[in-house]
Amino acid sequence: MATVSISNQGFINQLATEYNALSPIKKSFFPPSLKLFIEQHPFAELTQANQIDITQLLIFFQLLRSNYYIGHTFGSLRRFYNTPLFQSLSLLRKAGFLNGTYAEIVTASNFPLVLATSLVQLRTEVLLTEEEHITLARALINAVYPDKIVSILILLRQQGLLQLQRAINVTACNDLDNLLAILDIMMETNLLLGEHAESNLDRVLNYHYLNGLGPTIALLKQHNMLAGEWAQDNFEKALYTSASGANFDHPPASRFELVEMVRIISGLTSTLTILEHCGLFNDDQRQNNFDLVTAVSDPAQCARVIQFLSTESLITDGNRQAIFEAVLAHQNHQKLHHALTILRRLGFLNQDNLFWALSVGVQKILFHDDIVTIWDRIPPHRLTPERFAQIQEYCERFKQDPLEGRRQITGFINREILQLGHQTALDLNTKQSTHTESIHISTSETARTLMRLYGSQAGNLASIFGEIHDWLDQQPDTSAPYSPLKSARICFNNLRKPLYAFTDPLSGVSIQQLLALIWVAIQDDSKRLSSLPDARQQFLNALYECQRGYNISKAGVDRGGPDKPICLSGSFNKHVEKLKGVHADANIIFITPKTASNKFQVVVREEALGYLREQMNTLSPDTFSSLLQSVIKDGVNLIWEQIRQPVTDRILEEFGPSLYPEGSQSSAFKSLLSTAQYAAITPSRLKAKEKELTESPACHTSPLHFFDAQAAETDASEQEKIQVEAPCGSVDW
């Protein structure tokens, strides 16, 4: 019994149906043995199991060829002689090698006529033994394009490289077009001649991603890099096994290995294309740059960095080769690309500091694994040129000690840029000393309440974070360019790290504790005001808005671009904000432009007094007295340029995401800055202090405590008083 392919089974079933429709008289004219076979074993029944007696099939084939029977008696069956199956049998008969074995082979093929044509061509042109021919024919049964396979085998025979195992490897190839194109190029460039011919051929036949190799080989041929003394070396580099450590001479063992294989091989092709586009594949540097890029572990990531710099218009005729070599010096180009995108987001990727940014030493300090996430915490407006210059100075000072450099820079960023050391005042009006607005006060109260209610249940952070992580992983993602779920996962994974430590100074609750407390709180059926799925969705929304706070417009539309997270204190507030309406004990006071305006006056006053305090420490008493007189006369305008930046930083830090999402370029923010001249620094108090300074000898000799005041707030109806402890005693001003 022989296997019958699906397509041939259909023909045979139709043939049986036609036979069964014949009259008994016509059936009596059939050869007795065939008639008995058909009636006792109908084709339709036999082929249901995909099997048929090949001998009986050949008998029927001979019957169909007989004009005596078919032409005169059974004309309705004659059309089956023109089906692919019987045409293939006829072709084999004419070629002189129709027998049970070959009939069985074409019967098992879904493309019997194409296979039969290929077998005839193979037998005629390719020098194989009969046994080898049958083995190869069986290997061709499932081939979709046996004619292309035969063309390749003829090519190999012409080169004197045809062997049975190689022929079988060709039949197993799933990319015949690229294989044929590669072999044509190898013939043209003499890579199938000489001592390396067989090894070159075998490596290509055993390659498992010819779709990636083909374009690379074609590109090298186009640039005449497969000719001359470097031809063999370049060909082997194109195969790309040595530099990456990858081995493509065996099938991938897993899906991951397959994906990695495709990425690496395709990456080499795209790499050469990018180098060509960026002018790094020109005649004078082509061979050198090809050698350099194939020596790195992942040329695709290397090319990605080059393409990024080219897109940013940082590659010029004068620096392209130097940039290329600077990029190649890095071990991990994926991390380098991430570092450069951070600098671009912060506005410090330019021609002036490009090679500084590309230096390996800087990367080890600024973008090492244990510090790189800190950059996501910095709102762009807070990293001023002066502060960035200070970071550059740290890099230079500690280039021989990257670990200490990272420690120093982390401290500088936390202290000077993120200002995590600021204390928080207790209320908000034009008289208070504030670094947080009223929203902080209400969130702190909510945090204390949550700690009182759920502190004992939220003590095991690892366990609760595991629950949150599992829940986020189980949520269905969307295909949106800026997926809230993806951003939420990034934010959660960041906030749970020690590097993102932040403790609300009023409540004493850390942001990690707050996440755990809120997660426990929304499970509390007795106090939850919404459904549990809605509560959890609000938790996810909080994480998303923390991660992309500065990307979201006032209308709530994500404007795209790299993540621009809000600060840690803002993240603390955001989670409590989203809890309002979900939990009965969540309370929050929302900020308004009026709130920002009131606070702005306070911040201007604080920064002005802080500036005067610094000047008192450096100026002579007479010069300082003169400065005080000028401020009394002209107001804040006189020193506005000196305090403008810290005022801007503090206001945007606290109100930016909510009121000024466009940062310092916001028209509303510019309008707010124009009111600085109205900041209330009471002239009478400055005059009193000036008089004390000029009349008290003690104050001349020890002015350092002049502004070391602690605010003592009274009822709103009373006049504000600040007690100043100075060598000359306590005075009101």
Which helices and strands appear, and what pairs or packs with what?
Elements: E1 2-3, H1 6-20, H2 24-28, H3 32-40, H4 43-46, E2 51-52, H5 54-65, H6 67-71, H7 84-95, H8 100-107, H9 112-125, H10 130-139, H11 146-158, H12 164-171, H13 176-188, H14 197-205, H15 210-222, H16 231-239, H17 255-277, H18 286-293, H19 299-311, H20 320-328, H21 333-346, H22 354-358, H23 360-366, H24 385-397, H25 402-417, H26 438-454, H27 461-474, H28 484-495, H29 511-521, H30 532-547, H31 568-579, H32 593-618, H33 621-634, H34 640-659, H35 667-673, H36 683-695, H37 697-701, E3 709-712, E4 721-726, E5 729-731
Antiparallel strand pairs: 1-2, 3-4, 4-5
Helix pairs in contact: 7-8, 7-9, 9-11, 10-12, 11-13, 13-15, 15-16, 15-17, 17-19, 19-21, 23-25, 24-25, 26-29, 26-31, 27-29, 28-30, 29-31, 30-31, 32-34, 33-36
